[in-house]
């Protein structure tokens, strides 16, 4: 049977409240008593209930991270960066997911209102995300990734998707000035897709190109959907000298594999580029030209801002925009 705080108090010949003070506010207990209590804790192997302790102190030393999904390298890199920074700053990380059609009420009420976390980082990727309404009414310290929540005080970490997409499309246009570029994005309401599509339209407009409606497709960021979509079109694309701009590396890999399945060569018959610079970009053959997104840094910076907010609750809101970087590899045929 696990040792209790009562067992520690009896072993050290002190009151339960003294044990609690040693655990939570060590500086107000004299050194001799501290040593006696700590010796009892070590001998009995006592482990305090962190959640009960958190409710009493209104401080759990646990931070929450809520993402739209936990699948895929994009999200795992955000988690990795957040976890490293959390441990560096002396906290623990609790991770969950809430999809765009879920208001997040269950998750946020448990981890926030019940005091299980000191603050929350939430990624909002859809304009229509139901979680926006829930967050607007939350009093838990908050950092938002990728968007803003009207009515809620929060800090923000965003990625400069627009400039990254601009740099990519400008590069494609400069290497093939009159070439047709097909854009494959995520859902129409996805904030990252909107930024990347706007950049695509802007650069093409600057050089006098108006994309055909068939040159823009909204998928779901998955390899499988992109593979199926491209399988029906790669031969026509190749015949028309198309370059495919997929709004993430997973979809770009799906297009490459669809081309290979149709006995087409990338980039000789079809040029393909991606976005994010995940490991997929380097594992695909040929390697993908893409835009590097600092995913781990995004998670790390969000935790840093959240801890600053906990230390200074009344400071002004901070917005951090992380830069992106064009990475040119073999898939667009310019190396």
UniProtKB/TrEMBL annotation:
Coiled coil: none annotated. This is Catabolite control protein A. GO terms for molecular function: DNA-binding transcription factor activity; transcription cis-regulatory region binding. The gene is ccpA_1. Residues 4-47 form the HTH cro/C1-type domain. PROSITE patterns: HTH_CROC1, HTH_LACI_1, HTH_LACI_2. It comes from the Bacteria. Residues 3-57 form the HTH lacI-type domain. Pfam families: LacI, Peripla_BP_3. InterPro entries: Cro/C1-type_HTH, HTH_LacI, LacI/GalR-like_sensor, Lambda_DNA-bd_dom_sf, Peripla_BP_I. Gene3D superfamilies: 3.40.50.2300, lambda repressor-like DNA-binding domains. The keyword Protein biosynthesis does not apply. SMART domains: HTH_LACI. Transmembrane segments: none annotated.
């Amino acid at each position: 049977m696990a040792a209790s705080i009562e067992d520690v108090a009896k072993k050290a010949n002190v009151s339960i409240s003294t044990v609690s003070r040693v655990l939570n506010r060590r500086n107000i207990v004299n050194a001799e008593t501290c040593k006696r209590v700590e010796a009892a804790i070590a001998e009995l192997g006592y482990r305090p209930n962190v959640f009960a302790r958190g409710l009493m102190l209104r401080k759990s030393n646990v931070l929450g991270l809520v993402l739209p999904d936990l699948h895929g390298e994009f999200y795992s890199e955000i988690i990795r960066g957040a976890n490293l920074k959390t441990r560096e700053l002396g906290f623990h990380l609790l991770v969950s997911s809430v999809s765009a059609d879920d208001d997040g009420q269950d998750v946020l009420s448990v981890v926030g209102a019940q005091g299980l976390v000191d603050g929350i980082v939430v990624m909002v990727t859809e304009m229509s995300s139901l979680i926006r309404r829930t967050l607007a009414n939350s009093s838990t310290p908050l950092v938002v990734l990728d968007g803003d929540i009207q009515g809620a005080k929060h800090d923000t970490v965003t990625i400069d998707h627009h400039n990254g997409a601009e740099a990519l499309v400008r590069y494609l246009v400069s290497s093939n000035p009159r070439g047709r570029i097909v854009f494959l994005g995520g859902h129409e309401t996805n904030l990252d897709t909107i930024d990347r599509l706007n950049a695509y339209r802007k650069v093409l407009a600057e050089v006098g190109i108006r994309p055909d409606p068939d040159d823009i497709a909204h998928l779901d960021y998955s390899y499988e959907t992109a593979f199926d979509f491209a399988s029906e079109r790669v031969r026509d694309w190749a015949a028309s000298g198309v370059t495919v701009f997929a709004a993430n590396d997973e979809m770009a890999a799906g297009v490459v594999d669809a081309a290979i399945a149709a006995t087409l060569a990338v980039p000789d018959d079809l040029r393909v580029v991606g976005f994010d610079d995940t490991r997929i970009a380097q594992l695909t053959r040929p390697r993908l030209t893409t835009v590097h997104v600092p995913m781990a840094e995004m998670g790390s910076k969000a935790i840093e801002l959240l801890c600053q907010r906990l230390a200074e609750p009344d400071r002004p809101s901070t917005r951090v925009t992380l830069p992106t970087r064009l990475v040119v590899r073999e898939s667009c045929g310019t190396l």
